[in-house]
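pinned: reference chain
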Amino acid sequence: MTTPDYRFCPRCAQLLIERTDPAEDGGRIRQACPDAACGFVHWNNPLPVVAAIVEYGDKILLARNAAWPEGMFALITGFLEHGETPEQGIAREVLEETGLAADHVALVGVYEFIRKNELIIAYHVRASGTVTLSPELLEYRLVDPPKLRPWRAGTGYALADWMRARGLDFEFVDRAGQ
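pinned: its structure tokens
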């Protein structure tokens, strides 16, 4: 998978070319610098994303991103940053996006999200404090766990696994609306 926004080599500024090296890349097309001395290759590896099933009191907090349509809610997510563990990353994201402190963090699982070239590391987070949303989020809902309806993509599969582990019945919905 090539990335159209990567047109020039970040090391030497030459126009990148597409190349295939069956011995090194398994036949995948990669963007690479044509200058062998430079040697830059854009691997386009998936980005690590952390996600939280935030338990606040006896409910699960879902939030609506400012860029999403009305009625669409999902888990708290964010990109893992340099120098932090996934556990530290999700605690930071929960605090930044909701104002809540992560009192307990437990791994739910790791999930592919190929459409966005991401690898999701999902956690169950018990949180405390007062909800104060970041400007990135417009609103939130607190949902009783048995009423959650996972979606068929990325973090929805994590939510389904979390519910299944607690013996909760669920049905998937077509989008992240609740």
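why pinned: The mean pLDDT is 91. The two ends are 33 Å apart (CA to CA).
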